[in-house]
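Input record (Table S2, row 276):
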Amino acid sequence: MTTLLNKTAVVTGAGSGIGRALAIELAKQGCQLAISDINVSGLQATKQGILDIAPKAVVHIYELDVANRASMLDYATLVHAELGDIHLVINNAGVALSSGLDDTKREDFEWLMNINFWGVVNGTEAFLPFLKQAQGGGHVVNISSVFGMIAIPRQSSYNAAKFAVRGYTEALRQEMCLNHNNIEVSCVHPGGIATEIVQNARISDGEDRAELSQSFDKLAHTTPEKAAKIIVAGIKKNKPRIMVGWDAHVIHVLVRLLGIRYISLTQWLTKRLNYQ
Ligand SMILES: NC(=O)c1ccc[n+]([C@@H]2O[C@H](COP(=O)([O-])OP(=O)(O)OC[C@H]3O[C@@H](n4cnc5c(N)ncnc54)[C@H](O)[C@@H]3O)[C@@H](O)[C@H]2O)c1
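Output record (nicotinamide-adenine-dinucleotide complex):
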């Protein structure tokens, strides 16, 4: 898919952050959009942001919880009925949980997996049949993270979900190449992106959200707008892996060079930064 002009794109979690920036970037590229989120006021702000720069853009907004499989299946049918051929699906909605294993509540772990992993599977399964029918083929984009390449302490549930998204997406890409040449698949691995993810996160009882936000802000070097441009460029090149931000590239290279020995490095950094 070298051009996105006149294509129909679906973006989940588009009420904030990377999802919002992606929706705006895709509208600039000439896509008509189906954007969804659990946060309807966020979605309305995204729609307004699009109309401010592209007054003629077609933007449909839907309240949708990606963790709800039945709602996702209905949503895919509805988008197809309202907008016709669907060419691009970006499973972006996600949440964070900062908690050591000893303190992690099973309920919080399942909440995160249901959104960050099952939400991606729900979106892929619901839209694939429509992508396969679309004139000119389709593209599935699943948002993982650099934490789908390396694991760090206090992020076991997030790591589990993002590694799972990577495995699922890389298998999907191969299956689509073997059986459905007109479906492209990309997995996205952002580094630190300056979004609301920490404000929206669940944290364990002993943690201080303001402190976590401060540390995150120091590490989140890439704007959502820049991230969206990188992701859209990667989609047009049909990249299997889209690394977002210099930190993501550094981590990608380190993992290739060090293999499993990266664990000693992250342990050392954790002690140094007193993040345990
Ligand atoms: N910000 C980063 O540094 C970073 C790094 C790597 C990966 N990511 C990933 O990027 C994606 C977007 O995150 P972001 O940083 O823009 O965060 P964000 O919190 O700014 O935006 C996430 C959006 O997802 C929505 N959402 C949450 N639960 C939902 C649900 N059940 N159903 C539908 N929508 C839901 C939220 O309402 C919000 O609008 C996530 O998958 C996240 O894991 C972010």
